[in-house]
Each structure stands twice: as C-alpha cells, then as structure tokens.
Design brief:
The structure is a single chain. By secondary structure, the chain is mostly beta strands. The protein has a single domain, classed as Sandwich (Immunoglobulin-like). The chain has a six-stranded antiparallel beta sheet with strand order 1-2-6-5-4-3, with no helix packed on it. The protein has one helix and six strands.
Length: about 90
C-alpha cells in the first residue's frame, strides 16, 4: 500500500502558489484550477492563472497569477486513495 504524501500550500505575495501532495489536476483555465490533493479536492480561483510546473510523480505543482481563493472540499474515501471521481464511480 502506497503511503500518503504530505500536503502543503505556500502562497507568496498572492502571485505564486507552490503545492505539495497533488494527486492530479482535473481542470484549469485562466480563472480557476481544480485538482485533487492528499487532503481532498482543491479549487484555486484568481486571474491570469498559469501552471508553471507540474510533477505528479512527486506531487508538486507551481502556479503563478493573481490569487483570490483556495477552497478545499470534503475528502472522499480513505486518505491518499489517489482515485478520481470517475474511478470511484466505475469500480
């Protein structure tokens, strides 16, 4: 069984967001990014958002832009299941 990674979020000057513990990115555009983290779903809202780097093997994401909100949803399933909603529906 794979051990869950640590999740952390570091926002610098509301212009640079570094995340650890990212499992996958569901959607992204200039105004929002939705992704799954070790602590559940996360929606990032802002303006001019751009994914600068993404390393899913290490669970790291770097986003730049103007950030307005980081919104966490409820965790579904066990910690660190790493399954998307679609994978859970089709089990």
């Amino acid at each position: 069984m794979e051990q869950a990674r640590v999740h952390s979020a570091t926002l610098t000057n509301r212009q640079r967001l570094a995340l650890e513990g990212v499992q996958h990115v569901d959607h992204f555009d200039d105004d929002s990014i939705t992704l799954a983290t070790e602590m559940g779903p996360l929606t990032i809202r802002g303006h001019g958002l751009r994914i600068q780097s993404l390393d899913l093997d290490n669970g790291q994401l770097l986003v730049v832009g103007e950030f307005d909100a980081l919104i966490y949803g409820r965790k579904i399933g066990g910690r660190g299941t790493g399954q998307s909603v679609w994978q859970k529906m089709w089990r």
